[in-house]
Amino acid sequence: GCDVVVMLRLQSERMKGALLPSPGEFFKNYGLTQEKLALAKPDAIGMHPRPMNRGVEIDSRVADGERAAILPQVTFGIAVRMAVMSLLAGN
Questions:
Q1: The predicted structure's pLDDT at residue 55
Q2: What backbone torsions phi and psi does residue 32 show, to the nearest 5 degrees?
Q3: pTM of the entire structure?
């Protein structure tokens, strides 16, 4: 019943030796699929900050689907970070 499902990137390059399942098992347990997104509200959106590991964190059908808000999230995220850095720099 949620409005937004936000996924994060699994940074496997930083997790060497960590107790993580295989990519397939991770996707099975934690990856965002259409079936899992169907548990959210009918108009819920899926978000991911990119870069994404398709088939590990998110299914391509979700990432490329009509309920994905990934490209706007990335686009606006850049502007927000630039504004915050400008404020912190005193501009």
A1: 93
A2: -85, 115
A3: 0.79
